[in-house]
Amino acid sequence: MTLKPLILFSAILALCGQAAPPQVEVNNTIQVYFSPGDSPTAEIIKTLDSAKKTIHVQAFSFTSAPIAAALKNAHDRGVAVKVILDKSQQSERYTSATFLKRAGIHVWIDRKHAIQHNKVMIVDSTIVITGSFNFTKSAEERNAENLLVINDSLIAKKYLGNWERCQYHSEEYL
Prior knowledge:
Helix content is about 35%, strand content about 25%. By secondary structure, the protein is of the alpha+beta class. The chain has one domain (about 40-170): 2-Layer Sandwich (Endonuclease, Chain A), CATH 3.30.870. Strands 1-2-8-7-6-3-4-5-9 form a 9-stranded mixed β-sheet, sandwiched between helices. Strand 6 and strand 7 (about 125-130) form a beta hairpin. Helix 2 runs parallel beside helix 3 (about 65-75). The chain is globular, with a radius of gyration of 16 Å. The protein starts with a helix and ends with a strand.
């Protein structure tokens, strides 16, 4: 998949500390957000709020209360929510693992990999949320990060396959 020149230009501006244009839409399939400034968390929540059947999450660092609340809300309205986290999330002081587990959401810890560094959400087997954006307040407010929202069922299928392979070797969070 080739990125259009505007996306490359935005990425270069972001790397140089220049203001990038607000949310860039590559086409009807991909939206691009940068932080700080483009409010990736709000886009994640909007997408989670639209979920009808399933949400699969893989996260390295997950401390964002608004995103955790959106996952709980989805679970409460009957969406099947499943989460795989890096093993560091089991020992970190502030993490969403316990909140999600107590909400009745299935949470697993990936101990097989040195770091489970994915930052991925697959919504209704059609939308993939990914990029460098960790699901944290720092990613939203202080870090230079990016978020892609991809509406493509073939790409979602590939990401879901990877999620399932990781879930197979992960341990349930207790």
